[in-house]
Amino acid sequence: MTARLPTPVQDTATLLRARNLVQTYHARGGRRVQALSDVSFDLRRGETLGVVGESGSGKSTLARALMALPAPQSGSVDFDGVPLAQARGAALRALRRRMQMVFQDPMSSLNPGQRILDIVQMPLVVAGEGGAAERRARAAQALADVGLDAGVVGKRRPWELSGGQCQRVSIARALVLRPQLLVCDEPVSALDVSVQAQVLNLLEDAKAAHGLTLLFISHDLGVVRSVSDRVMVMYLGKVCELAPAGSLYRAPRHPYTATLLASVPSPDPARRLLRPALAHGETPSPLDVPSGCRFRTRCARASERCAREAPALQACADAPGHAVACHHPLPLS
Ligand code: ADP
Ligand code: MG
To answer: Torsion angle of alpha carbons 217, 222, 225, 228, nearest 10°?
Structure first.
């Protein structure tokens, strides 16, 4: 795998700044689902931030809010110092070109009636970049960058390719405009395990070659581990924990993260047995979230305070760069 870019630490190195993002949806019976609830974080230039949480925790809503597709109901997103909410028309389109997305299901995110070369060229057409010959050449290069030969696959349609090949096409399409930020929403979840590693390697290579910043979403902590510099764990629309990957996997501080980690297969049976039972029961309905800490109804460490008071995401004094939203965090073991 390609070597990691160093992760800058100065604040000037922030590419994207998300503050207090809230997004709600209308649900049946006039009720509302708060899919994102006061989510704040910074994305540093050149880093890969893994975002993990079970289905329904708000990961896709977050990805869309970052792109203003649609904009969050409240809160702010600054991209390279520019507030997205203040950009309009051509300025907003220009910003969006610098941030591209890859989706979970490669087949359905590609137009089945279009040929592969046309699919990869489309962002250039929409952006009005280059003449026809230049666009074709750039699309062919983007396909070559993801290991596909335009001469072989360029005239085919998505259904004539495998799932892994389709995901490569999606990545080529996302990279053809040379974005700074790539948001990958469960990019390998629909792929066979054997193909997942290839696509992950490809993303790492693309990141190194283009100096990309990556937001990598998955429901699987095991998948995120190999690609992330830092990891953010979400539960029912809130951030539970945000930490450098090494620190999070070695010593998770939020009981929910520890529970997720316990379900990742460990090669060491002794470690598996050592893991404490920290959670029980099912995830509550997003229509009826618990008061205070949203995880408390499943948490073995919950106290009366957890029902009263929602814990804020706070830096851990004993672990640099590690932040947790918990009244009773796990000790540094
Ligand atoms: P994830 O990607 O983590 O699975 P989502 O962001 O898709 O989570 O969804 C978060 C919550 O918002 C879920 O409870 C989901 O049912 C709800 N939700 C998502 N999209 C919509 C929508 N368009 N209309 C109503 N509810 C939605
Ligand atoms: Mg999703």
So the answer is: -10
Enumerate residues 6+ apart whose C-beta is below 8 A from 19. 40, 75, 76, 77
Amino acid at 91: A
- Both tokens assigned to 58: 């708000």
231, 248, 238: which is closest to 332 by C-alpha?
A: 248
The CA 285 to ligand 1 mean position distance, Å, reads: 12
Q: Is 91 helix (H, G, I), strand (E, B) or coil?
A: helix
The tens digit of pLDDT for each residue in 164-176 reads: 999 999 999 999 9
pLDDT higher than 60, residue 250: yes
Give mean pLDDT, residues 52-73.
94
Ligand nearest to the CA of 72: 1
- For the chain, the residue count is 333
User: Can you tell me the distance from the alpha carbon of 200 to that of 1, in angstroms, rounded to the nearest whole number?
Assistant: 9
Mind giving me the DSSP string for 166-233? HHHHHHHHHHTT--SEEEEESTTTTS-HHHHHHHHHHHHHHHHHHT-EEEEEES-HHHHHTT-SEEEE
Give yes or no for a contact between 316 and 323, defined as CB atoms under 8 angstroms apart: yes
For residue 51, give the ligand nearest its CA: 1
Q: Rounded mean pLDDT of the chain?
A: 90
Across 220-285, the runs of DSSP E, i.e. the strands, are 230-235, 238-244
What atom in ligand 1 is closest to the CA of residue 55?
4
Residue 104, token pair as written in the block: 């979970």
Q: What is the pLDDT of residues 94-151, one digit of tens each?
A: 898 999 999 988 888 899 999 999 999 999 999 999 999 999 999 999 999 999 999 9
